[in-house]
Amino acid sequence: MFFNIKRVSAIMVTAVLLVLGTIRTDAEVGIVIASSLNVREQASSSSAIVAEVEAGSEILLLERTGDWYKVNVGDIGYVNANYIRTESEFASGTVNEAPTTDATITKGQQVVDLAKQYIGVRYVYGGTTPNGFDCSGLVQYVYRHMGVTLNRVASDQAKNGIYVAKENLQPGDLVFFKKPGRAIHHVGIYVGNGNYIHAPYTGRTVCIEPMTRSDYYTARRIFY
């Protein structure tokens, strides 16, 4: 089940620890700096999602291993540490702004970074949420969390943004696929280096693959 935790107060943090029977003086509170952040069962981007927290949420950090924090949001799970800043970091002034708003990171790359959080989510025809995505549902969901409303289906999303040639693709561009004499039937998000992220079809999950398929048709840039 997915749920949003808009804010976890210090009182709530203490209450969670009491329930667990493991009050710790070394635990920190982290603040979510992504537009939304998945909490996963294990410390892996391919692990199942157990919760989703919104920007500005405060969550209890139990421990850090590499690029992952073990956290408590009512359920125990793991979040990518790149999208968390601790209260002590903010208090000390060592963090002035979140990486997702850094001028050196393009909007398109932010789209890619957000889309990567959903790697491993199963394909569901007509799906528009992290419970299951179809190809255009994934694209629409990611861009909506970037503040952009796109059309719902792939053929209509090809009307959003501006045309961009294949040789000029940049991360975040939408790539479309079409067989001769038929309508556009698939869409993904270009991630760079000839690869794209997409929700392929029933039986598969959101993944990154080389963009080598023969039915490539066109591309659109949303941020320009």
- Count of individual domains: 2
Annotation, overall tally of beta strands: 15
Would you give the CATH topology of the largest domain?
A: endopeptidase fold (from Nostoc punctiforme)
Overall radius of gyration: 19 Å
Shape: elongated
**Mean pLDDT, nearest integer?**
82
Please, how many helices?
5
Q: Major β-sheet, in short?
A: 6 strands, antiparallel
For the record, the CATH architecture of the largest domain stands as Alpha-Beta Complex
What is the CATH homologous superfamily assignment of the largest domain? Answer: endopeptidase domain like (from Nostoc punctiforme)
Helix content, binned percent: 10-25%
Order of helices and strands: HEEEEEEEHHEEHHEEEEEE
CATH class category of the largest domain: Alpha Beta
Terminal CA distance reads 36 Å
Overview of the structural elements:
It is a single chain. This protein has helices at residues 10-20, 87-92, 107-116, 135-144, 154-157, and strands at residues 28-32, 36-40, 49-54, 58-65, 68-72, 76-80, 84-86, 128-129, 132-133, 162-163, 174-178, 184-192, 195-198, 207-210, 216-221. The longest helix has 11 residues, at 10-20. The protein is elongated, with a radius of gyration of 19 Å. Strand 4 (58-65) and strand 5 form a beta hairpin. The chain has 224 residues and is an alpha+beta fold. The protein has five helices and 15 strands.
